[in-house]
Amino acid sequence: MSVARTPDTTRAMQQWRLLHHTLIRLGGWVEYIDQQPGLPDMVFTANGALVRGNKAILPRYRHAERHGETEHFRRWFEEHGFEVYELSSGFFEGEGDALFWGDVLVGAYGFRTEKGVYQEIASILECDTLLVELSNPHFYHLDTCFCPLNSRQALFVASAFTSESAEALGNRGTILEITVGDAVCMQFGCARFHCYHT
To answer: Which sequence spans correspond to the domains of the chain?
Structure first.
């Protein structure tokens, strides 16, 4: 990403409205959180928590630029009746790095989230985990390179993971591989598909 490349705000709003109306037309619903001044990355709301049922685990962002987001997400979840949890230590970036694949939480670590947080997360959510290490800095969050389709199938970019982690995912279910080129052409293809699919 380059700050020299500015977005086309008119086109971005048209694309957002199309997505919003499509989701509603297909029977989905959209919840909103107010954007806060000086926190441009709040648009990546998947990073705002890990949610399961009525429980929401807040992020502990690695980069200082995002620290201010947490209190706004906390307030939103509390106002909407969630049980809100904070981790005692370690960096964690919500559903950007942790996605349920059936009943198993696939938890990524390596760039933004630390491996050690998942023991506490598993205890809070009372779930099994499959931990995977990201090794390609172009895919710094799990949702940029992995997308569960159902309880046994998922899309993924194999080269985003260490070989051991790619193998562990393959042993868990049926993996449909997309190439790095496809993912880049799709502009974070797994994340975009995850948004539309879920």
So the answer is: 43-197
Its sign, for the CA torsion 64, 68, 74, 76, is: negative
pTM (2 decimals)?
0.86
Burial 9-18, CB ≥16 within 10 A → b, else e: eeeeeeeeee
Listed residue (42, 109, 111, 40) closest to 71, CA to CA: 42
Query: What percentage of residues in the chain have a pLDDT greater than 70?
Result: 89
Q: Which CATH superfamily is domain 43-197 in?
A: L-arginine/glycine Amidinotransferase; Chain A (3.75.10.10)
